[in-house]
Design brief:
Elements: H1 2-14, H2 17-20, E1 27-30, E2 39-40, E3 46-47, H3 49-62, E4 67-70, H4 76-81, E5 87-88, H5 96-99, E6 103-104, E7 113-118, E8 132-136, H6 140-148, E9 153-157, H7 160-168, E10 174-178, H8 179-188, E11 192-199, H9 203-206, E12 213-214, H10 219-234, H11 237-245
Helix pairs in contact: 3-10, 3-11
Length: about 250
């Protein structure tokens, strides 16, 4: 009996985050819709690249899928700091400004940005005076358009759905957002086209890649998240999910 008890306690101590926290699932904040990273299906279930990757990561840390909490982008860091969830997995670029507020995992992908417009539009990126460009509030793209294209009128949105509707409805000349999201729009609607090349610079705006965000005090959790992501990259799961959702390379 003593041997069995000692074995049980040894296993308990060696098991990661799960048993140490009574196997509670990790609560993860995400802004949706943001296809192909995260979108809610007709049945209410979240799907997408970051949903699948996040669930695989949570399985490694706790033995359970993530408990997803939908949160609008402009309140996503305040929600983390207010303990509404434990992590943010929502295409959040690692920047110096955000590092002041949160702790990041190692980056797990780097996505370019791009402009998208209507196929019938005469939008010209070399002359943006008197143009209306939509961006999601609080994003790198908002900062880019405001700083790099000062002649344009910046129209800020809470959700990408509203941006899309105003673009199609000809209330915007163009939008700027993460390229995979716009590419998904273009695949679903032939009225949407990419305008110009991918944009990845300057680094002061577009940061160091996308990471999982946590509260600064949660350093042990950050170690576990990094270990889980590293394992998923080494065992092939990460590459399988990349191939499932993307036709071009967004790996670091």
């Amino acid at each position: 009996m003593r041997t069995l008890l000692l074995t049980f306690f040894a296993l308990t101590l060696s098991t990661p985050f799960a048993l140490a926290r009574d196997a509670k699932p990790l609560r993860v904040g995400m802004d949706v819709p943001y296809a192909p990273f995260g979108v809610r299906g007709p049945d209410g279930v979240l799907t997408g690249f970051e949903v699948d990757l996040g669930n695989a990561m949570c399985q490694e840390v706790t033995g359970q899928d993530c408990e997803w909490v939908v949160q609008a982008w402009d309140g996503i860091i305040p929600g983390l700091l207010a303990r509404k969830y434990d992590l943010i997995i929502s295409s959040m670029t690692i920047t110096a400004e955000r590092r002041n507020a949160v702790l990041f995992s190692e980056p797990y992908y780097a996505t370019p940005s791009a402009f998208f417009t209507r196929a019938s539009s005469e939008f010209d990126l070399s002359n943006t005076s008197n143009t209306r460009i939509g961006v999601q509030r609080g994003t790198n793209q908002e900062r880019y358009v405001a700083e790099i294209l000062p002649d344009a009128e910046v129209v800020r949105y809470t959700t990408t759905d509203d941006m899309y509707l105003d673009l199609i409805g000809e209330r915007l000349d163009a939008v700027m957002l993460d390229a995979p999201v716009g590419i998904q729009w273009a695949e679903d609607d032939t009225k949407v086209v990419q305008s110009g090349d991918f944009i990845k610079e300057p680094a002061r705006i577009f940061g160091e890649g996308v990471g999982v965000a946590m509260r600064k005090r949660d350093r042990k959790l950050a170690e576990q998240v990094n270990a889980a992501l590293d394992k998923l990259k080494n065992n092939g799961v990460y590459d399988e999910l990349m191939a499932k959702y993307f036709s071009f390379d967004i790996k670091l």
